[in-house]
Design goal:
This protein is α+β, with helices and mostly antiparallel strands. Strands 2-3-1-4 form a four-stranded antiparallel sheet, sandwiched between helices. The protein is elongated and about 80 Å long. The protein starts with a helix and ends with a helix.
Length: 118
């Protein structure tokens, strides 16, 4: 095989390897969390009412405060299908967050309350 062909083949192989590494290698330490937001409230009493309503439905709610507003989430999951199924029971919006694999639900809520970009 001529030297030029070896260089071309080597360049193609290296390009594919780097593309694979940068496409998939960077996401190895990350996961996607889906959160289902069911309300934003100015008054703590309204937040508490929503959490009580969720509890009556058998749903453990989550809440965090940001910019003097109370955000209420009815579900946090790594599975989009779970959120989509949940959406048939409760009216709200789904939000998606790319986070480190070590992130827990509590850590997500703290980050959201600080206004961190996720």
């Amino acid at each position: 095989m001529k030297f030029e062909w070896k260089v071309v083949i080597f360049a193609i192989v290296c390009s594919l390897a780097f593309m694979f590494i940068f496409t998939y290698g960077c996401s190895l330490g990350q996961k996607t969390l889906y959160a289902y937001q069911v309300g934003i409230y100015k008054e703590a009493s309204n937040k508490d009412e929503k959490l009580a309503e969720l509890k009556e439905m058998g749903i453990e709610g989550y809440t965090y405060t940001k910019n003097d507003q109370y955000y209420v989430l009815s579900m946090i999951s790594e599975k989009k299908e779970d959120i989509e199924k949940h959406a048939t029971q409760v009216k709200g919006i789904m939000k998606t967050y790319i986070v480190p694999t070590s992130t827990t639900n509590e850590m997500l809520l703290v980050s959201l309350s600080k206004g961190d970009d996720l």
